Amino acid sequence: DAGITQSPRHKVTETGTPVTLRCHQTENHRYMYWYRQDPGHGLRLIHYSYGVKDTDKGEVSDGYSVSRSKTEDFLLTLESATSSQTSVYFCAISESVGGYNQPQHFGDGTRLSIL
Amino acid sequence: GENVEQHPSTLSVQEGDSAVIKCTYSDSASNYFPWYKQELGKGPQLIIDIRSNVGEKKDQRIAVTLNKTAKHFSLHITETQPEDSAVYFCAATSYNAGNMLTFGGGTRLMVKP
Asked: What is the pLDDT of residues A3-32, one digit of tens each?
């Protein structure tokens, strides 16, 4: 299995509070991604990173910010959590080999409940 | 942007039978199509992928076919076993999309012993 650790694995918090989720990889892969998974929507990309301090928005980025200060860590922050952000969040990583899409490998997720 | 539709949403088969899951995509530029298996409480696990320069790929009991003209691709599982029970997702992307995957809605496969 790809060396991806997500923390925390479970979190319950209240509306309006800030929340930060962490993704840590030991594979030295260039690309890192944050997805959310909701019933009926499959997995949707929130943000991704293509290098240290290089990030871009995905399909559902509103209300989320990210940071990547080291190759191995990619943080997802909800500045002021809302109930609509209750979801399971997955981190993924992939290598970068010029000219070809590379497989993405996923962590085991963080289940976030916002009350 | 890309849109991926996946059918059926649930599939029940008898152990030993074959299972087929189908996906269609909208962006003719898409050139990479992975399939993932997700077990309860786990993250999606890549089981097979195919690139647009081939029409079929096999790995033991699993095969994927791609029809670029019709913009659809399918996952075939032969000789199903109870441990194949899981949710399966297809996805698509193009190099121009920066490797950003668009996923189908998932298929819950149940293999009855």
From this structure: 999 999 999 999 999 999 999 999 999 999
| Three-state SS annotation for B18-51 | CEEEEEEECCCCCCEEEEEEECCCCCCEEEEEEE
Burial class (CB in 10 A: 0-12, 13-18, 19+), A28: exposed
Beta-carbon separation of B103 and A100 below 8 A: no
Option in B31, B34, B106 nearest A42 (CB): B106
| Interface test with chain B among A23, A50, A104, by most B beta carbons within 10 Å | A104
Q: Tokens 């849109």 identify what position?
A: B3
d(CA B22, CA A114): 35
A88, B102, A78, A90: CA torsion to nearest 10: 40
pLDDT at A66: 98
- In sequence order, which ranges of chain A are alpha helices (DSSP H)? none
Verify whether the Cβ–Cβ distance B95 to A41 is below 8 Å: no
Tokens of B29: 């530029």
pLDDT value for B36: 97
Angstrom distance (rounded) from CA A32 to CA A47: 9
Question: Whole-angstrom Cα distance, residue B87 to residue B109?
Answer: 6
By C-alpha distance, the chain B residue nearest A9 is B41
Q: Which residues of B touch A (CB under 8 A)?
A: 1, 6, 31-32, 34, 36, 41-46, 49, 51, 89, 93-95, 98-106
